[in-house]
Amino acid sequence: MITRERSSKLLNTYVEGESLNQHCRMVAQAMEAYAKHLGKDEEEINEWWTAGLLHDLDWEKYPDEHPGKAVNEILPKQGYSESVLNAIKAHAPERTGKEPETEIECYLFACDELSGFMNAVSLMRPTGFDGMKVKSVTKKLKAVNFAANVPREDIMKGTKLIKKELNEHIQFLIGVFS
Q1: Exposed / middle / buried, residue 4 (Cβ in 10 Å: 0-12, 13-18, 19+)
Q2: What is the CATH number of the domain that holds 78?
Q3: I need a surface site. Which of 1, 21, 31, 158 has the fewest CB within 10 A?
Q4: Does the pLDDT at position 1 exceed 90?
Q5: Nearest residue to 89 via CA among 114, 116, 69, 113
Q6: Domain residues for 113?
Q7: pTM reported for the whole predicted model
Q8: Contact 136, 125 (CB under 8 A)
Q9: Burial bucket for residue 104 (CB in 10 Å: 0-12, 13-18, 19+)
Q10: Are 30 and 173 in contact (CB under 8 A)?
């Protein structure tokens, strides 16, 4: 099994920007929390965390090849599992042609954009995630100019993939991040 320390070092090798590094760590945190919530064993929890941590590994250095550079060249050489590779492929189906199917794939897709969006909301609040309400997030989702680069349709698709209501998914993630 690949250690979290080794995965973190790999992330830091490819991701130098603070905001992308934080995003990757937030998605890893969300994935770990959902894996535990779903009763996964320790090995699966680690896989889910790893997929979240490394999903944007190649975005900064190879944006035009993302996530292909990571899943075809970087991660296989390091010995990462097919489960992790497929989850990373499925978080960007428009680039890879791989739609999310398995549970880990669906949850990574669902946590990625919403985590980034919720982080943007937290930055607008003096208390960050502390005391954040679902309504604060849903209100900002309706404001098309706020975090305009976050595709709202992907957030909605993600909630459907994990069979959760948007409010429930947001509330869960507030609990994870606060």
Answers
A1: middle
A2: 1.10.3210
A3: 1
A4: no
A5: 69
A6: 4-177
A7: 0.97
A8: yes
A9: buried
A10: yes
